[in-house]
Amino acid sequence: MKEDHFKSTTLDDSASIYQPRQEQTEKQKFSEMTFKEKVSYFNDYYRLKTIVFVAIAVGIIYLAYTILNPGPKTVLHVTSINSSIDMETAEILEANFSDYLNLDKDKENVFIDTTLYLSNEDAMNEMTMASEQKLTVLFYSGEIDIFIAPEAEFARYANSGFFSKLSDQLTTEMCSYFGDSFYYTQTEEDPAKGAYGIYLKDSILYDKTGQPMENPVLGIAVNSKYTENAVDFIRYIFELTK
């Protein structure tokens, strides 16, 4: 009886557990999954790899494009704060002064930034803080060539030594012409008064309609990379001949 029971419970050699298992390929596994299982499988095994691959590919493409297709080089950077120059005038001035310099506009450009605002109040708002941080970076990196601001804001930067003494940059004839239009001050490093700015009331930038512009003043940044173009810009806006 026991022998019969043993025989009846003994698996035949052809039973499935004795058959060699066939490993499924990834493709076969994926084809048998439901949509939800496929999404879960992808997230578990491939999402991170895919993100890294795409990020690297985008970085390589962007770098290659930047190297092969560089944008125009800025040969004069003018920063005008507190709407000393309105945006429409800035765009016209960029185009006209580029023509004045005979620039190849595919390779070189003039940039006038009118987006910054500094409050003349003691309280620092977010816009003023952001503008001051950006200005600090631009000045120290030598990106700014010309700075235009209402007199009160201009004075703070002039006293801190951000501008060149104009007698060192302008011709003798220009210094004589601007004698009464110079903004004189002293800096923290140089107690002797000097001309560090020019009032814009006689320039083509001055608002002749009578709209208040808070007496804007122009200066050349002390570490400007394009001082010759900065001087030409002054000639242009005051309609002086070379």
UniProtKB/TrEMBL annotation:
Keywords from the UniProt entry: Membrane, Transmembrane, Transmembrane helix
Transmembrane spans: 46-65
Superkingdom of the organism of origin: Bacteria
Designated name of the protein: Extracellular solute-binding protein
